[in-house]
Amino acid sequence: MARPCKSAKVIDKYSQTKFEIQARIEAEEKLRGTADKIIPPKHLNSNQKKIFKKIVEMLKASEILGNPDVYILAQTAIAIDRLQEIEKFINEDTTRMFDKNVMSAKDKYTKDFFRCCNELSLSPQSRAKLGNINLQAKQQQEDPLLKVLRGGAE
Fold it and tell me: d(Cα 126, Cα 120) in Å, to the nearest integer?
């Protein structure tokens, strides 16, 4: 199975030219749009809204979210909430883990959760890549030689 396409900000910088990466980043920024309306949809319950807001807060520093991501964030919040409810249900009576319907629902929401994590770059590997990219960008902004080359001599 093919891997999903990653953001140009998190891809291996040696797999494409600087021009190709820059072009992809610009295209992604246009598609990402603004991030001024990332609020939980009204159909979420209070716990799902809390989860939604927590994920948004955790991803704020990465600056990867845009308004269109509200839908995948909502699905992620629902999946997490439902998985928590299923786990509580099983913990009340551990024989329920042998119930095919309960375990089928757990499997469905687990798959939803992992798919959403992949879409939102929530895996530890994705976060590590984002952190490395942010560090490299900060170092490039602070490099005095690069500032001079960009025309920002002090």
Answer: 9
Radius of gyration of the chain, Cα coordinates, nearest whole angstrom: 20
Give the Cα separation of 50 and 70 in Å (integer): 14
User: Could you tell me the pLDDT band of residue 61, with boundaries at 50, 70 and 90?
Assistant: confident
pTM for this prediction: 0.67
Instruction: Please give the backbone phi and psi of residue 16, each rounded to the nearest 5 degrees, phi first.
Output: -145, 160
Contact assessment for residue 62 and residue 134, using Cβ atoms and an 8 Å cutoff: yes
Which pLDDT score is estimated for 20?
A: 74
Sequence ranges of the domains in the chain: 36-119, 123-154
Q: What is residue 22's DSSP assignment?
A: H
In 3D, which of 59, 56, 50, 51 has the Cα closest to residue 38? 56
Assess whether pLDDT exceeds 70 at residue 151: no
